[in-house]
Specification:
Helices cover 40% and strands 13% of the residues. The chain is α/β, with parallel strands linked by helices and 456 residues long. β5, α7 and β6 form a beta-alpha-beta unit. α4 packs parallel to α5, α6 packs parallel to α7 and α12 packs parallel to α16. It is globular and about 60 Å long. The structure holds ligand F0G. Ligand F0G binds next to α4 and α5.
């Protein structure tokens, strides 16, 4: 059969409020043209993030009822630990309340001022947590990874030549760890090949640098490897994931992504000394090491989610449904980061709104237009999120100006996505009338969350 159906049926539902354009114009104005400030009730199709927005399965809800809320040594922890260890092989597993808590604890322990941490691309909270330590986060993704039109099966790969050069020219004392993000969220949800992970692992060993995986979307990455990398077609996504982790010294994880949980995460490490320090800080900021800021029921939801996320039928549907949106946009003349990623489709705002200059914030303008035209909420990943000022006060623009449509797992059906495509088609017909934006107010850090904007 050619048709790939959603491999589940819906048992419990949330109604969607159907709004009109006048209503949405008013809501947008009230929100200061920042889609993060909209009320979720006023959004029809919420593609702001795939994080914490998954539909949990009946088996996960059943597991929730098994949650053991004991302060120490809860059976939920041991089920969680076994499920995480089965996939990652990590010797030590520390639960945390979400991915950035893992980053904060790991970097507070390992990273000091003046250090440099290379990655393919750091996610924004990863970068912010490294910079908060007074250190530098360096992105070394391959060149194709920065060109929306470049076709490459593994556009998330790190440039191993530049990485080796980096290792060879930076004193070891200043490189506390190196990381790879799978899939590469900031670079378009693009996968990293096993060959690349293996190459990075070899270099990290050669230069004595601990190698950590930012594992948020490890299952989607594993499935891309199965589809695209020679030699992996007959392996299961679980086996591929296990091989990926076996090449690393540890991982950080937000279970809000590829564990179908609404909250949670972990740090995995094989380092016996480091883990003691991590646990000390964990107790200070998250909680006792067998719950780490989570309820026992959350740990059980993660343990069950990890079993479901490596299911091949699920992953086949997941990757196909993201590609359906991406290819539909391309057919309507909307340039995306090609090929479509695992969890999201990234629209190239510069070619979609070619009449707007960079300082007119085309990504922000596009995110607002999607909401106004169809009640669709996406997220700008461009100048608002990553733009900077240089020492002279001039704007420094990031390489790409994107709007991300992230797809919550197991939440929307194909007709929801058909609606998104129809809205985009209508918006494209009227794109010349979409005006630019300017920032009216911004906070000192992570401005995209709370800044307010005006129409130019
Ligand atoms: N690393 C990656 C690659 C991420 O995508 C995220 C979160 C984190 C770390 C932090 O995890 O949110 O649990 O603290 N990404 C979400 C997103 C927010 O929308 O892409 P967290």
């Amino acid at each position: 059969m050619k048709t790939i159906i959603e491999p589940f049926r819906i048992k419990s539902l949330e109604p969607i409020k159907i709004t009109d354009r006048a209503y949405r114009r008013a809501a947008l104005e009230n929100a200061g043209y920042n889609v993060f400030a909209l009320r979720a009730d006023d959004v029809m199709i919420d593609l702001l993030t795939d994080s914490g927005t998954s539909a949990m399965s009946a088996m996960q809800w059943s597991a929730v009822m098994m949650g053991d809320e004991s302060y120490a040594g809860a059976s939920s922890f041991y089920r969680f630990e076994a499920a995480v260890r089965h996939i990652t092989g990590c010797k030590h597993i520390i639960p945390v309340h979400q991915g950035r808590a893992a980053e904060k604890i790991l970097f507070s322990t390992m990273v000091k001022p003046g250090d440099v941490v290379p990655s393919n691309c750091h996610f924004d909270t990863t970068r912010a947590n490294i910079e908060a330590r007074g250190a530098e986060a360096v992105d070394l993704v391959i060149r194709e990874g920065l060109d929306p039109r470049a076709k490459h099966p593994f556009k998330g790969n790190i440039d191993l030549e530049r990485l080796e050069q980096f290792f060879a020219t930076t004193p070891r004392s200043r490189v506390p760890l190196c990381m790879i993000t799978v899939t590469n969220n900031t670079g378009g949800g693009q996968p990293v090949s096993m060959e690349n992970i293996r190459g990075m692992s070899r270099l990290a060993r050669k230069y004595g640098v601990p190698f950590y995986i930012d594992a948020c979307r490890f299952a989607e990455n594993a499935y891309f490897i199965k589809l695209r990398e020679p030699g992996y077609g007959d392996k299961t996504p679980e086996q591929i994931a296990q091989e990926m982790f076996s090449l690393s010294d540890g991982c950080t994880m937000s279970a809000k992504k590829d564990a179908f949980a609404n909250m949670g995460g972990w740090i995995g490490t094989n380092d016996d000394d480091l883990v003691q320090q991590l646990r000390n800080l964990l107790i200070l900021t998250e909680g006792f090491p067998t719950y780490g800021g989570l309820a026992g029921r959350d740990l059980d939801a993660i343990a069950q989610g990890l079993k479901e996320v490596v299911d091949e039928q699920y992953l086949r549907y997941r990757i196909a449904s993201t590609a359906y949106l991406g290819n539909g946009l391309l057919q309507r003349g909307i340039q995306i980061v090609e090929p479509p990623g695992g969890h999201a489709v990234y629209i190239d705002a510069l070619s979609t709104l070619p009449h707007l200059k960079r300082h007119e914030l085309p990504g922000q303008a596009l995110a607002c237009a999607l909401y106004e035209y169809g009640g669709i909420r996406g997220c700008e990943i461009g100048t608002v999120m990553f733009g900077k000022k240089d020492a002279q006060g001039n704007d420094v623009y990031p390489a790409m100006e994107l709007v991300r449509l992230a797809i919550p797992r197991r939440v929307y059906t194909q007709s929801h996505i058909d609606y998104v495509l129809e809205v985009c088609e209508e918006m494209m017909r009227e794109r010349d009338s979409i005006g630019g934006m300017r920032i009216a107010w911004e906070p000192p850090a992570l401005r995209h969350f709370t800044a307010r904007f005006e129409r130019r």
